[in-house]
Amino acid sequence: MTAPVVKGFAALLVHAPNLVRYGAEPFYRLRARGEDAGATLRPGLRSYEDALRYPPNQAFIGNLRPEALGDLPVPWYAHPLEGASPQGRHGDLMSEEIFYGFLKVADDFSQVSLEADFLEEIQESLRQHPLFQETDAKRLGRGATAPDLAQKVSSEEALPLFLGERMVGIVQRAHPLDPSLSAHALLENLACKASALLALRQLLGQHPGGPESIDYLLSCSEEAVGDRFNRGGGNLAKAVGELAGCLNATGADVKSFCSAPLHAMVMAGGLAQSGVYGDIAIVGGGSLPKLGMNYDRHLEAGIPVLEDMLGAVAFIVGPDDGHNPQIRLDAVGRHDIRAGFSQQAIMEALVVRPLERLGLSISSVDRYASELQNPDITRRFERGDTAKTNYKMIAALAAKRGEIPADGLDTFVATCGMPGFAPSQGHIPVGIAYLGHGMDLLSSGQARRIMFLAKGSLFLGRMTHLADGMSVLVEQHP
Amino acid sequence: MDLDNQAQIKELAERLGVENLVVVIGALDSGGAEIAAMTVTSGDPTYAGPLAGVSLRLPVYHVLEPEVRSSVDQAAYQEEVELMEMALEESVEDIVATTRKAREGLD
Amino acid sequence: MFQGKKVIALGDRDGIQGPAIARLVETAGAEVVFSSTECIV
After folding, report:
1. pLDDT tier, B48 (very low <50, low <70, confident <90, very high otherwise)
2. What pLDDT sits at residue B10?
3. ipTM of the complex
4. Residue contact C16–A343, C-beta within 8 A
5. Which domains are present in chain A?
6. What are all long-range contacts of A176-179, with beta carbons under 8 Å and residues at least 24 apart?
7. Which residues from B are below 8 Å from C23, CB to CB?
């Protein structure tokens, strides 16, 4: 049987403590209270070293198996790893200084200005960075003077970019009235574009055909790129592909809240299998609005503001190549409209029905990569553990169907699940964060079948009370 | 709780009268249930929304409480709740204690 | 307890969602005047 395959995977983290103030919760809340964001957040912000040694981050970039997190003492933020590396099997953990440089590289319309001295300071590290390309150098420009930048900030045309208390750059608005082109919206979009670009370059650097072998790009990122006439107009995919050198590709964006990555994976699989395109790259850039979502609770509890990471992923789906893991297009699970609001009906639609089509049972899947939100972020407030709840739902379904004993739920969770490890980045934690680890297991024969699951909270956009969900079964190549 | 939801609940309580309203909560973690229960009785505990410092004193129940369970259609209850009840991380007692405690504060 | 009452259904995406609560209390004779679902992830 030929089926589309997953050909490569990259995952990148950016430690962005000074951008936390522009996350949606801190930004709107602190502004409403008239508080100085820098002063309020500073006591809770982590150092790069702390972020690097944070076990879930090492799992995300591929240096630690997520399953191994279960053996480590919690809370993870209080037990840093020894010997953590910024270079991961799937990608790097980048510092904020270097990311600011790439924010400028990603900027096509002079929205970003970096301060000249700062630019000079990071120039050398940027040039030596493996993801920095020769053509990026002239995009950096010469930098601006600190007084010029300060003037633009005080006239409210721009938002400052900080490193600690030092302003090292700004992001300017592109229109005086259009909220879709405000400095804040553009910063969100550029942070997404830059992080997606880095993940895509990382991916294509290892891809035998290189960037020009990509026929099509899908972005499953969360940001709504557009203007007041077409908010969310889109095509971040093409913008990212341009800077990654995908000269033969065009692209489009796929939106469905957090379930977008799996929609994109299924679409790409269909397009590759039907021969419309050959290799298709899927990118998910980081979500700046999610930074600091629980900052006030973290500060109140005296623990680090753990939502200080931008996460990005990129992977390739292409026609069957005879060895990479296959996407089972005949077993795609979808939360159809009929399934409605009952968690049982939704889980049956996502897990049971696709497996039944193949004559398989719930326990014939070696691993479920469900919503892998990091529980360290919420457990202090008894706010549940999304990853574990999903696993227990799948286990409960298996028990109801008589596949496992009624007291075997925890055993099932331990065998087929894993602790959540992905940063709060909406679409990034939903299964897709595990794709690289999953490919390792499938390629080495340690697993035969992995199901990826995603759910999306559509109701947040006030157009329907419905949620959405998708599942995709990926198998070892026969 | 979402700020817009708080505004809408406040407006409903003012317009329809507290005595005609019942709030039913579906969060299955005690942290989430407690925030929701407190918000509609004593006020937003996070002091972020329109219900900060506003004591609506609405009667509040959890969907897992026997009072709710015994009042509704049993087949529908099974469809909507049974699987989640099997998957709980905390005990039903701990979860429903949140709404019970909030109601006690109303007496 | 729901007969003739107006209900505010406060659901959770990881628990029982707002419309599911609404469906339940409607079977008991309540009128749902508001239904929402919270999402913390």
Report:
1. confident
2. 97
3. 0.96
4. yes
5. 326-475 (3.40.47)
6. A177/A228, A178/A227, A178/A228, A179/A228
7. 76, 80
